Amino acid sequence: MPKVNILGVDIDSKPKKEILEDLGFFLKSDRPHLITTPNPEILLQAQENQELRNILNKSDLAIPDGFGLILASLYLKNKIKQRITGVDLMLDLCLLASQKNYSVYLLGGLGRVPEKTAIKLIKEYPSLKIAGYDNGFRGWGWRLSDSTIIEKINRVKPDILFVAYGAPKQEKWLYHYLPKLKTVKIGMGVGGAFDYISGQVKRAPLVMRKIGLEWLFRLYRQPWRFPRIVKATAYFSSEVLKNKRKIK
After folding, report:
1. 3-state secondary structure the chain
2. Could you read off the pLDDT of 216-227 as tens digits, one per residue?
3. Rounded to whole angstroms, how far apart are CA atoms 174 and 75?
4. For residue 22, which phi and psi values (nearest 5 degrees)?
5. Which residues pair with 105 in a beta bridge?
């Protein structure tokens, strides 16, 4: 199925059913696959970050995580079939892993967030194998070296790796280090998914998510996000409009 190009980034325009079929195929393959979850904020970062834009375009799947992408695709008259949030796709992958006997590794988050995420996931999917979890730090805020992290992951041999470093760091980390992870078939950047799953941050009610008002709930709960939300709504819309005029 053709992709939808928004601000120079190709976004997959597939319904979730087909995305899940692709993920099942990836898990049976003999190479790693990179899954990215572009949203308006990430696409704006990619405008100024050539490396990030290249990584997004080279990823095996670029999932439309953000209602703004759906609206932009409608304006560009190349409709994206379905919005798929990173946290929801992560949960879908965990369900698939629990059913097919695949294991997952959680990397990133702050403090005990990855541990709490693992506990919640096992509670939700009792058959799920958590190969390991790590926030990437060791005492006094010292970050582990990438080589140490790679060694730890390779030791427990997961099939799926979720990285919650935030964009663009998680995308760049996965792009550069996935080839060194011997057993990982799917590497996915998940942003704040660990915070939502662990209960550290409350998600918007389902009805608000469905109508694209999740940003309003975030603003209510976290007023400090105001500059980021303005950038991801008003500024993103302005860039899409300008980009279409340039193309014309």
Report:
1. CCCEEECCEEECCCCHHHHHHHHHHHHCCCCCEEEECCCHHHHHHHHHCHHHHHHHHHCCEECCCCHHHHHHHHHCCCCCCCCCCHHHHHHHHHHHHHHHCCEEEEEECCCCHHHHHHHHHHHHCCCCEEEEEECCECCCCCECCHHHHHHHHHHHCCCEEEEECCCCHHHHHHHHHHHHCCCCCEEEECCCHHHHHHCCCCCCCHHHHHCCCHHHHHHHHCHHHHHHHHHHHHHHHHHHHHHHHHHC
2. 777 777 777 767
3. 32
4. -60, -45
5. 132, 161
* Domain residue extents for the chain: 4-198, 206-247
Distances in Å between the Cα of 194 and the Cα atoms of 31, 105, 136, 233 are 26, 12, 14, 24
The average pLDDT across 99-106 equals: 98
pTM given for the model:
0.92
Q: Which one is the CATH code of 4-198: 3.40.630, 3.90.930, 2.30.30, 3.40.50?
A: 3.40.50
pLDDT at 140: 60
- In angstroms, the CA 30 to CA 184 distance is 9
Largest CA distance in the chain: 54
Distance between CA 30 and CA 52 in Å, rounded?
25
Q: What is the pLDDT of residue 207?
A: 84
| Residue 247 confidence (pLDDT) | 52
Please state, in angstroms and rounded to a whole number, the distance separating the CA atoms of residues 4 and 76.
9
Close Cβ partners of 73 (under 8 Å, ≥ 6 residues apart) = 4, 6, 11, 13, 64, 79, 80
